[in-house]
Amino acid sequence: MKKLKLILVTTCISFTLVTLSNTFIGFTNNINSLSVMDIFQIAITCLMVSIGIYFSMYNSFLKEHFYIASYLIMMVVVFAMENFFRGYYFSWTSFFIEFTALTVIYIIVCFLTIYENEKDAAIINKKIKNMKKRNEK
Fold first, then answer.
1. Cβ atoms of residues 109 and 50 within 8 Å
2. Of 28, 59, 65, 77, which one has the greatest count of Cβ atoms within 10 A?
3. Start-to-end Cα distance in the chain
């Protein structure tokens, strides 16, 4: 159940950040908003990235280099899904814009996930400490 929670939390955080960043970029540049198909593609891509990262945790080498491996998995999945949904089209300008945006979003998602894990660990440690105090009395 924890593994499913990790996949869902990562998917939700990344989906929210990607959608908000796309909305912000569209708002500031007066570009049309996202279509329903675009939102669906973002959701599927975020889910596939989360599943790819989850399964990479079973490989000992990838697990040792988790952040680099998950970053590379994210990049490969995102560009593969873009190719799947939109067909093959390559532009260096588009590549660098997406590369930069994905890197920023990846860093934010990692920070939020680490922050959430630290917060959960603090709550658990506090409960353990309280239990030890009760058992000492």
1. no
2. 77
3. 35
Digit-coded pLDDT (tens) for 62-119: 778 888 888 888 888 888 888 888 777 777 887 888 888 888 888 887 888 788 888 8
CA contacts within 13 A on the Cβ side of 51: 8
Q: What is the pLDDT of residue 81?
A: 84
Length in residues, the chain: 137
Q: How far apart are CA 17 and CA 6, in angstroms?
A: 16
Query: What's the per-residue H, E or C state across the chain?
Result: CHHHHHHHHHHHHHHHHHHHHHHHHHHHCCCCCCCHHHHHHHHHHHHHHHHHHHHHCCCHHHHHCHHHHHHHHHHHHHHHHHHHHHCCCCCHHHHHHHHHHHHHHHHHHHHHHHHHHHHHHHHHHHHHHHHHHHHHC
pLDDT in tens, 8-36: 777 788 788 877 877 777 777 766 667 77
